[in-house]
Design a protein that fits this description.
It is found in: Cytoplasm, Nucleoid. Belongs to the YbaB/EbfC family. Binds to DNA and alters its conformation. May be involved in regulation of gene expression, nucleoid organization and DNA protection. The protein is an alpha+beta fold. 59% of the residues lie in helices and 16% in strands. The chain has a three-stranded antiparallel sheet. Strand 1 and strand 2 form a beta hairpin. The two termini are 32 Å apart.
Length: 104
């Protein structure tokens, strides 16, 4: 009976270690910056890993009062590009912890 308890304690320590590593990895991702851009970099945006926008730069050539839809489209492209980069890196980084776990 004691033999099984030692094994259980070892598993618990291993899980606690993995949990600390996961928190550290998530914190590092949240602090990292991701830049997304539209066609020809006419609009660029920078987000942190927790999907908070920090900056947006719009090339003045893109600002046309007669065509606001173009500017809107370029902003959407840049934002979606940045979020895709965040999602990809998050999946790669955190996937090693959640791979094989039920419900993940």
């Amino acid at each position: 009976m004691m033999r099984g308890m030692g094994n259980m304690q070892g598993m618990m320590k291993q899980m606690q270690k993995m949990q600390k590593e996961m928190v550290k990895a998530q914190d590092e991702l949240n602090a990292k910056e991701f830049t997304g851009s539209s066609t020809n970099d006419l609009v660029t945006v920078t987000f942190t890993g927790d999907k908070t926008m920090k900056t947006m730069a719009i090339n003045p050539e893109l600002i046309d009062p007669e065509d606001p839809e173009m500017l809107q489209d370029m902003i959407v492209l840049a934002v979606n590009d940045a979020i895709k980069k965040i999602t990809t890196e998050t999946d790669q980084t955190m996937g090693k912890y959640t791979k094989g776990l039920p419900g993940m």
